[in-house]
Amino acid sequence: MLEVGRLSVAYGGIHAVRELSLEVASGELVCLIGANGAGKTTTLKAISGLIAPQGGSVHFDGRSITRLPAHEVARRGLSLVPEGRGVFPRMSVAENLLMGAYARNDRAAIARDLDEVYALLPRLTERRTQMAGLLSGGEQQMLALGRAMMARPRLLLLDEPSMGLAPLMVQAVFDIIRRIAASGVAVLLIEQNAHLALKTCARGYVLENGVITLSGAASDLAADPAVRQAYLGE
Ligand code: ATP
């Protein structure tokens, strides 16, 4: 479904991502793990059209989306949940969710999807009229996931959903990610928390200094001595 081929991104003269290739199949849950500054966010931004790559290609459903603007990439069914979540703090929970459907005009289907998102995120149902800025960090992460789902994506790109959350909240957010994946939406998850990412995903890639150094089944990566030492604190 998503095929990234030899993608390279540089900021000025600094190469942040070099010749990166990865794939996500339909309905698959895949992670990209790596340390601070490895190039994870840069990779997601280049896939989703927020920055232009210097080289390489991005295909979605067999069609090139390389260098398409972000709104056009989103229209094709690829939704990014950025790091820091980016909810609109002065808008209500319900208004934030509806913003996710801004490019749609199928009102009846939007209403049904809103009900589905509330069913997925019961904590938000109780808070639907509350201002998003008053939610806890974990609730804001849930809201960002719900808003992305309102665009009816076929692939979700998640940038560090565990960032800054207390352990119980991390569990709750990852339960939601698993349920989203189980509903048939493919997920590419980037995480510094390698333990959690490898436990959640079927397959993964390891990114070091902008280069993919390892890839494979998550269980194989979790058993790999180099991964255990560098990312699992052993
Ligand atoms: P983190 O987990 O800290 O977010 P990351 O793996 O997502 O890290 P990136 O944010 O993609 O890493 O950054 C990769 C490299 O590119 C880093 O060396 C970073 O300093 C650099 N970089 C990122 N954004 C910019 C920018 N807008 N201008 C210049 N350099 C940048």
UniProtKB/TrEMBL annotation:
Keywords of the record: Amino-acid transport, ATP-binding, Cell membrane, Membrane, Nucleotide-binding, Transport
Transmembrane segments: none
Domain ABC transporter positions: 2-234
GO MF, one example: ATP binding
Record InterPro entries: AAA+_ATPase, ABC_branched_ATPase_LivF/BraG, ABC_transporter-like_ATP-bd, ABC_transporter-like_CS, BCAA_Transport_ATP-bd_LivF, P-loop_NTPase
Family per record: Belongs to the ABC transporter superfamily.
Protein's name in the database: ABC transporter ATP-binding protein
